[in-house]
């Protein structure tokens, strides 16, 4: 007892007496911290400072405030947005024949181009005072997704002007003169924009672009002015082949000091008419046979006035931050919209196809092997829709959540790939034979485009999500890094001492929370709701504490080496991502009014998310380089082992059974993929067959009973079988007519296109 009291007194003196604490704790730790501090490049610093911390900050800090999540509100369309979707968007869909667009035209038909321009499809984000729509992020996402349910090429054509491009950059950063000149033209479709960022030597590392703009004096329109001599070589530029105005990112240099002392000004963005002397719009690319315009652009010694810099000369060198902030918003709207559309289409068509396609005398949806894949499709679609809603909610709240949008871009495009793979497996021959009836082939082929653009997925996962999130979201680390960079050592030590005390308390809380939650099954963690989803919130709090603890110790042990441990940081980033996706799922369940028929999907999604997060933590612990620290963390995080299990077979069967019938749950999960008479893509065909077959389900039961008792033969083609059943008065004449009609629709739905020649 005496020894314990003495030890306690030592701790109290060490931490309670400031002069002693500063000498023996703060100063040594501060010196150590400065040594292990990861070096940050200028582009990393700008990326770190750009954007905002949003809900991911709560998840990263170990104790999420679930009431904050629920306070964000439910995304809703305004009356104007709803009217645009019900009229202009639906009209546009009738003009789309994706097979003709991709296979024959290699372009959108002229009437569709004209309609997009006339009705303001390229002006969704432009303010109304300039002739734009000023729609919300949620509305823009919904519009792109509905178009994507019919044609990826059409959707990409619309999404690019409303994503990273001149319109968004001008709206946020343009001078008054630039906005007044360009935005009305962009809104009306008179000007078609593209934005050139990616080049042969700069892809995911956009900050390393070699394209240059050198400050110089030259004659322009008969007058010698100060401007830029530009040289660039860009590729993969969507809309470049048809663009009339080019947004360009380049490294600005001032070797002669014409603007000041800074020789390397930095990344800058400018706006240049494509008919300007020296601008070259090159040939088209062929992105996996899609028909949207994509190509190259070059320029050699192209002179432009300084006033053509977006935002004017005062924004010289600020282009990287502008791009990061705008890219984060576009990344959270456009690509997630394409991915969610794939999910809606796959769910609508595959549930219908699984019902109408028969093998071995049964709908294939009754086979457990099919149910396993179909359950993943449905659950991933529920997750995609939930993530789309939460991410656009953040953007509409006027935050720029760069980490959240990186999570959305990576995980939603990967989920879309999984959904399409499973849908192709189930629909098999129906999916691989291209033609007007095929609704899976083009999205399946286009999916890798989403995965590679706006930052390759591999690097998004391994470098961005955890790399930015760990520093941006941590309540102390960024402030400590700023303190370490202070020139006044005494002031820095004082500030660091205050931060250190808070940081130590934060770490102790997370360690205790992780261990206590693990030992008690999270039963004492708070939840904002009761009922079946209550435990999910509690388990997420436990995993959030574990992530915060492991992040702290990883940064402490590895310091600057952590960002080079990409596989390790990717796994910890996965924990954050899974918690974000799970948050989105629970929020959508609440926003939908806690519908009972949503519960099978929620159960499947949440057990998957929690299992994935726990497995990512376990994988990080298994590969943590400092084994004693890894053993200590394992004892705190999984003292009784990892017992987070994925969905059961029963969950899968329950989910599929509920979705293989018409109803509100299925409608909520497929509303981006409406069926209507003018559909040219085969979706309405398979849906019509599904509804007709379902209406006849009780008539089919009569025939099955008669087959089992031997009244009707078991192997007889449907029309003859139905006629025989009517002759024997097993079914009525009206029921016979319904069966024959339904069977005709079924055959049309399962058939594929064929051609005289290709």
Automatic annotation (TrEMBL):
<dbReference type="InterPro" id="IPR006091">
    <property type="entry name" value="Acyl-CoA_Oxase/DH_mid-dom"/>
</dbReference>
<dbReference type="InterPro" id="IPR037069">
    <property type="entry name" value="AcylCoA_DH/ox_N_sf"/>
</dbReference>
<dbReference type="InterPro" id="IPR015396">
    <property type="entry name" value="FadE_C"/>
</dbReference>
<comment type="pathway">
    <text>Lipid metabolism; fatty acid beta-oxidation.</text>
</comment>
<dbReference type="InterPro" id="IPR036250">
    <property type="entry name" value="AcylCo_DH-like_C"/>
</dbReference>
<keyword id="KW-0274">FAD</keyword>
<comment type="similarity">
    <text>Belongs to the acyl-CoA dehydrogenase family.</text>
</comment>
<dbReference type="InterPro" id="IPR009075">
    <property type="entry name" value="AcylCo_DH/oxidase_C"/>
</dbReference>
<feature type="domain" description="Acyl-CoA oxidase/dehydrogenase middle">
    <location>
        <begin position="194"/>
        <end position="294"/>
    </location>
</feature>
<keyword id="KW-0285">Flavoprotein</keyword>
<dbReference type="InterPro" id="IPR009100">
    <property type="entry name" value="AcylCoA_DH/oxidase_NM_dom_sf"/>
</dbReference>
<feature type="domain" description="Acyl-CoA dehydrogenase/oxidase N-terminal">
    <location>
        <begin position="83"/>
        <end position="190"/>
    </location>
</feature>
<feature type="domain" description="Acyl-CoA dehydrogenase C-terminal bacterial-type">
    <location>
        <begin position="471"/>
        <end position="755"/>
    </location>
</feature>
<keyword id="KW-0560">Oxidoreductase</keyword>
<protein>
    <recommendedName>
        <fullName>Acyl-coenzyme A dehydrogenase</fullName>
        <ecNumber>1.3.8.7</ecNumber>
        <ecNumber>1.3.8.8</ecNumber>
    </recommendedName>
</protein>
<dbReference type="InterPro" id="IPR046373">
    <property type="entry name" value="Acyl-CoA_Oxase/DH_mid-dom_sf"/>
</dbReference>
<dbReference type="Pfam" id="PF02771">
    <property type="entry name" value="Acyl-CoA_dh_N"/>
</dbReference>
<dbReference type="InterPro" id="IPR050741">
    <property type="entry name" value="Acyl-CoA_dehydrogenase"/>
</dbReference>
<dbReference type="InterPro" id="IPR013786">
    <property type="entry name" value="AcylCoA_DH/ox_N"/>
</dbReference>
<dbReference type="Pfam" id="PF00441">
    <property type="entry name" value="Acyl-CoA_dh_1"/>
</dbReference>
<dbReference type="Pfam" id="PF09317">
    <property type="entry name" value="ACDH_C"/>
</dbReference>
<dbReference type="Pfam" id="PF02770">
    <property type="entry name" value="Acyl-CoA_dh_M"/>
</dbReference>
<feature type="domain" description="Acyl-CoA dehydrogenase/oxidase C-terminal">
    <location>
        <begin position="317"/>
        <end position="456"/>
    </location>
</feature>
